[in-house]
Amino acid sequence: FKMQETRQIGLIVPLLDHPFFSRMAQVMEQELFRNDYRAIICNTEEDPQREIEYIDLLLRQRVDGIIINSATNTISYLDDLQAQNVPTVLIDRNIETQKASKVFSDNIMGGYLGMKYLIELGHRHIIVVAPFSTASPIQQRIHGIHQALEEFGIPKDPNMFITSDDHSFDFGVSIGNQLMQMNPRPTAVFALTDVTAIGIMRACWQLGLHIPDDVSVMGYDDIPLASYASPALSTIAQSIAEMGQTAVQLLLNHIQNPDLPSDHAVLATQLVIRETTAPPIK
C-alpha cells in the first residue's frame, strides 16, 4: 500500500500527436502544476499493451493517482489500481465500470445536434465520416445521429456512414477526394472529428470546390484550429479545457478524501456555426 505522497500523477493519453488529445494533456498538466503536482504523460498510441506497460511503470513510480483516456473499451487493470489504493479517473471514453470516477462529454447530444442542424438547413444527401470508429465517443455520436434521422423521418442508410480507424488529416484528404468525386456528390459531410473535417476541406480546395456553396462541412470537437481554418469550421464543441480541469479536480478530491465514492461528470456539447455550412443550392 502507498505510505506517502509523491506529488506525481500519471496521465494516460492515446495519441499525443492528435490536436484533441494533446490539448487535453496540456490542460491537465497545467491544472496539476497549479495544484503543486507533477504529471508523467504516457502516450499509448492506441495500443492496449503499451497502456498496460505504462500502468506498470506508473505503479513503480508510486504515483498518487492516474487519469486514463484508454485505448480499450474495457480496463482489466482497475482492480490492481484499487488494490494498491491508487485513485483513478477515466476521461473522454466512457467505459462501463463503477470502479473509477469518469468525465466525458454528452456525445449522443453532440451527434444529434450536428445532424439536426444539417437536416434543418435542407440537406438530405449527407455523408458521415467516423474515424476512431470503435471508440465509445464516436459510437455515441453515431447513436445521436440516428436519433436525429428518426426524428425527421429520414431512412437509415448504411451507405451514409464511412468508418475507419484512421484519424489523420491525410485520411480526411483521401476520403474527401473520394466523396467529392461521387455522382451525385453529397451536399453535406459531417466529420466526427475536426481533424478529419479539415482534411476534407483540404481535398475540396484541391478539387476547386467552394465551401459551403458546393458542399457543407461540419466537424466535431472544436479544437483551436477549427476557428482559424479558412473558411472557419462549423463544429460541435466539447469543452476540452473543462473536461481536463474537471478530471484533475475529481482526482485530487479522491486523493485528499480516499473514502469518497466514485463520481462522474457529463459535460454539455453545443453547436458552433461558422462559415462551412449553409443550405444546399437547389
Distance between the termini: 68 Å
Computed Rg = 20 Å
User: What is the strand arrangement across the widest sheet?
Assistant: 2-1-3-4-5-11
Poorly predicted spans: none
Total number of helices? 9
Number of strands: 12
General shape: elongated
Content-based structural category: alpha/beta
Q: What proportion of the residues form beta strands (DSSP E)?
A: 15-25%
- Provide mean pLDDT, rounded: 94
Let me know the largest β-sheet.
Answer: 6 strands, parallel
SSE order: EHEHEHEEHEHEHEHEHEHEE
Helix content class = 40-55%
Written overview of the protein:
- The chain has 282 residues and is of the alpha/beta class.
- It is 40% helix and 20% strand.
- The strands form two sheets. The chain has a six-stranded parallel beta sheet, with helices on both faces. A six-stranded mixed beta sheet has the order 7-6-8-9-10-12, sandwiched between helices.
- Helix 6 packs across helix 7.
- The radius of gyration is 20 Å and the shape is elongated.
Summarize the structure in short:
This protein is an alpha/beta fold and 282 residues long.
Topology (SSEs and partners):
Blueprint: E1 8-13, H1 19-34, E2 38-43, H2 48-60, E3 65-68, H3 78-83, E4 88-91, E5 101-105, H4 107-121, E6 126-130, H5 136-151, E7 161-163, H6 169-180, E8 188-191, H7 194-206, E9 216-221, H8 224-228, E10 234-238, H9 240-256, E11 264-267, E12 269-272
Parallel strand pairs: 1-2, 1-3, 3-4, 4-5, 5-11, 6-7, 6-8, 8-9, 9-10
Antiparallel strand pairs: 10-12
Helix pairs in contact: 1-9, 4-5, 6-7
